[in-house]
Amino acid sequence: MHSGTSMATPHVSGIAALLKAMHPDWSPAAIKSAIVTTAWINKPSGFPIFADGSPQKLADPFDYGGGIANPNGAAHPGLVYDMGTDDYVNYLCAMDYNNTAISRLTGKPTVCPTEGPSILNINLPSITIPNLRTSVTLTRTVTNVGASNSIYRVVIEAPFCCNVSVEPYVLVFNHTTKKITFSVTVNTTYQVNTGYFFGRITWIDGVHTVRSPLSVRTEISQPYIDEK
Asked: Are strands 127-132 and 209-218 parallel, antiparallel or unpaired?
């Protein structure tokens, strides 16, 4: 078996095409979410995944993303992290694109919110916090694509550096509630610049396991020095 982006790209493209055939109403973001959140984080044998290179090390989300693609699982993910036009506009606003450039892209007048959106709140199926100093709270919204009446509970695997909490920790879906937004608060007492630590936030309902990789790097707040 070979690995790498050149091998992964055609396989993932094929999986995406199959998912679109099964679920014609799914957006590209929903398809990506289904693939990422249902991926295996161990080999089919049950053994851990190791990264290529020397010395050998256990692989982390920066090596394998969500994990090994699981097409059958992706076909029935239970929940997806979906995105629409407004989400992509908020992303561009968070990346400091101006209104003129965004309007040219959308084809209609578009104005960024006065209080700029946080890039941490872009509704991706993964969470990366590159500069945690004390505490940060971000949000995600999940859409139920499984049974109408479903109850999901969260399982948190916190990175070694941090404490993580999720609110609410139980999501209840029914015929009228298809989408639910939850918040994730990550805090640390580390007073040192570090590399990335990794964890996971997983929603389970007894049938589906919906995993999101969590990557956090802590950073010291640099004191302001007036040299006047």
From this structure: parallel
Residue type, 92: L
User: 102: part of which helix (H) or strand (E)?
Assistant: helix 99-106
State the amino acid at position 22 in one-letter form.
M
CA nearest to 138, candidates 117, 159, 153, 157: 117
Contact partners, residue 160, CB within 8 Å, separation at least 6: 197
0.85 cut: is pTM over it? yes
Note whether 122 and 87 are within 8 A (CB).
yes
Please measure the distance between the N-terminal and C-terminal CA atoms of the chain and give it in whole angstroms: 62
pLDDT tens for residues 182-214? 999 999 988 778 889 999 999 999 999 999 999
The pLDDT value recorded for residue 3 is 64
CA pair distance 26, 83, nearest whole angstrom: 10
Task: List the one residue out of 41, 116, 36 whose CA is nearest residue 83.
Answer: 36
